[in-house]
Amino acid sequence: MRRVWALMLVLMLLFVTLAVQGYAATVLEVGSSGSDVTKVQKRLIQYDYMKGSADGKYGEATKKAVELFQRRNGLAVDGRVGPSTAAALGVTLSGSSSSSSSAASSSSAAIISSDHRLLSKLVHAEAKGESYKGKVAVAAVVLNRVRSSSFPNTITGVIYQKNAFSCISNGAINNTANNDSIRAARDAMNGWDPTGGCLYFYNPKATSDKWIRTRTIKTVIGNHSFCM
Questions:
Q1: Higher local confidence (pLDDT), 98 or 41
Q2: Is-above-0.90 flag for pTM?
Q3: Within 10 Å of residue 196's Cβ, how many Cβ atoms?
């Protein structure tokens, strides 16, 4: 009897292992269709890699958009969406084969790098209470500074630059980021910039800094004014 139970246990473990491996191996490519494809397309459209609508059908247009995303994000360029590309897009592949063009995209709240972790903490500290778009905008300002020759060329350098952000001096940078801040930081790293290239932001109701008020305001999102 013990041998029978042992054999059944081994078979159950084998079944679970194969199921997990099959799930992890989910790869989308030309010819794929369904809710996973829709989620990927919505991300590509959101990040301006793809035009049109998310129809849940993986065709040549989707493949070319994926290739461009992979190229710009340092991924292997094969036009297919596997675990690495899905993670970079912030999408969780369910492995579902049922078609649904109205399925909502799913963002991963997982930390993918030390830069992502630090940026998430900055967003949480500086934009707590702001809308999701407002959180992405704060992260985008940091990344815009990284790309500017007027600031340090790393996320760490920008965030810890002297007097750059109040959360460094008051210690709020050490707080754990929530899921929205983690997702917002990742969306900004993937290319979403609601500010249109701004290098500064401030809350006009909370700051006494006269210099920041001389900057040209490009957009206002929630309580923050974003400027050049």
A1: 41
A2: no
A3: 12
Q: Which residues contact 78 (CB under 8 A, 6 or more apart)?
A: 67, 70
Phi, psi of 142 (to 5 degrees): -60, -45
Give the H or E element holding residue 42.
helix 35-46
Distance CA 119, CA 124 (A): 9
- Quick one: which of 162, 187, 169 has its CA closest to 126? 169
Please, are residues 187 and 137 in contact by the beta-carbon 8 Å criterion?
no
Contacting residues for 116 by C-beta, under 8 A, at least 6 apart: 182, 185, 186, 189
d(CA 22, CA 37): 17
Residue type, 20: V
- Supply 77's token pair: 């360029």
Smallest Cα–Cα separation from 116: which of 83, 73, 69, 71?
Answer: 73
* Distance separating the N- and C-terminal Cα atoms of the chain: 76
54-75 burial, b at 16+ Cβ within 10 Å, e below that, comes to bebbbeeebbebbbbbbeebeb
16 pLDDT above the threshold of 60? no
DSSP per residue, 143-196: HHHHHSTTS-SSHHHHHTSTTS-HHHHSSGGGSPP-HHHHHHHHHHHTT--TTS
